[in-house]
Amino acid sequence: MTNLKGKNLISISDYSKQEYMEILNLAAEFESNPRQELLKEKVIASIFFEPSTRTRLSFESAASLLGAKIIGFSNPAGTSQSKGESLHDTIKMVASYSDLIIMRHNKEGAARYAAEVSAVPVINAGDGANQHPTQCMLDLYSILKTQGTLDNLNITLVGDLKYGRTVHSLVQAMCNFNATFHLVSPVELKLPSSVKMHIKKAKLDYYQYTNIKDAVAVSDIIYMTRVQRERFSDPLEYEKVKDLCIIDASTLEGCQPNMRVLHPLPRVNEIAVDVDSTPHAYYFDQARNGVYVRQALMAAILGVK
Amino acid sequence: MTTQNKKELIVSAIENGTVIDHIPVESVLKVIRILGLDNYQDEVLIGINLESKKYKRKGIVKVRNKYFEKSDLNKIALAAPHATLIVIKDYEVIEKISVETPEHIEAIIKCINPNCITNNETIETKFKVVVKEPLKIQCHYCEKTMTNIRFVE
Fold first, then answer.
1. pLDDT band at B75 (very low <50, low <70, confident <90, very high)
2. What is each CA distance from A149 to A140, A141, A174, A216, in whole angstroms?
3. Which of A131, A276, B61, B138 is deepest in the core (most CB within 10 A)?
4. Contact status of A130 with chain B (Cβ, < 8 Å)
5. For A199-223, what is the mean pLDDT?
6. Which value, in Å, is the radius of gyration of the alpha carbons in chain B?
7. How far is A107 from chain B, CA to nearest CA, in Å?
């Protein structure tokens, strides 16, 4: 068993495969018994320099279930940052009041810098377009729960593969588990070569498609993301491709029985409502899994598990 | 004195100091900036567009009474990956060193990502060298990889 006590989680690459598995096993323990007052004596700082309802509530719910006290802010307006205080000074101050910092920031790299400045561990709850490692951990947990394994799966990633940070982290993490990747996106939003590099380095296979229908039958997991109109330089191009990366119940005909659809949420129109009632819909359970994974991370990093 | 040394006399010989040879012509001023020679108090001799067998045209910098740490010299590799450093004492060549691209680069390069925290707070930059040639580096903070290098002004 590895020791995660005091370890930051800034980027998905900070943790080894063994460490992921340790967190996922712990998350399963919390799922079967979520109310454990293991952090009764601890203060957790939840500092959100940009608003994020889902992630913040999930973290705060996880901390509350563990009995921790939560301090912090959900919006920088009215804090010392808005008066011009440097991030360095804010983090120093928050670290002196707490045992662990959960931080979201709109600038890429802010979490890594905070971890260097802070005397207490930092969990990155999203830094701009860069990393959102706890989302990736809960995606892994959802895949493990629905497939019974993380090894040798066919993972289909759909939508905005260029800018979607959850997609980039998931590819990076699944490279540890001998996955085969099916990449479905408009040409303008293909997976960047810097992310494909991880797949090539791990000597794994990937296939590219422009229409989701071509990848449904082979998939164990279909991971949906939203294609945003503003990503296209040519609006006509958006109109041409917008229906090729969306699914409804009929799209999923012929899929494998074990196939599950994931989505980091919020969804707009990329998953039709009629998918919700199929046995393949898993996105709402996926969001709930986030609480158990965050409980596991906080307990492990604070050394109570 | 060898034939090669005689050729270098185009830019006046130095008694003691360091000659930085085989600099790409366009990188001479960058090398000066990387090594902080723009504030150096002793003589710095600069040659640009000199003939070179290997590279057709090259730049050369001679710094009087100055010897560099190897870590300083490796920073030059970012602008001049094939540069040679020649250590001179009493007009004699004491040592020739080829520069090597370092594994990590601190402070001298700017991150190209405008949304990187290093471009928004007063933070010294750090980069990991991912590929040495052609140079590809990754920002330690925002994790962006980049091939075009911008030096801190």
1. confident
2. 10, 10, 12, 20
3. A131
4. yes
5. 96
6. 17
7. 5
The minimal CB distance from B116 to the residues A86, A109, A194 is found for: A109
pLDDT in tens, B7-59: 545 667 889 999 999 999 998 998 998 888 989 999 999 999 988 887 789 99
The chain A residue lying nearest B118, using CA atoms, is A109
For chain B, the distance separating the N- and C-terminal CA atoms, rounded to the nearest angstrom, is: 39
Mean pLDDT value of segment A125-150: 96
Q: Tell me which of A130, A136, A200 to substitute to probe the interface with B (most B C-beta atoms closer than 10 Å).
A: A130
Mutate to test the interface with A, among B139, B143, B147 (most CBs of A within 10 A): B143
Instruction: Report whether A95 contacts A87 (CB < 8 A).
Output: no
Q: Which helix (H) or strand (E) holds B49?
A: strand B44-52
Query: Could you tell me which residues come within 8 angstroms of residue A41 by beta carbon, excluding any fewer than 6 positions away?
Result: none
Which band of pLDDT confidence, cut at 50, 70 and 90, is reported for residue B5? low
What pTM, to 2 d.p., does this model score? Answer: 0.87
Q: Is A105 in Cβ contact with B117 (below 8 Å)? A: yes
Q: What are φ and ψ of residue A84, in 5° steps?
A: 100, 10
CA A67 to mean position of chain CA atoms: 24
The interface predicted TM-score of the complex, written ipTM, equals: 0.89
Give the nearest partner residue to B116 out of A86, A88, A107, using CB atoms: A107
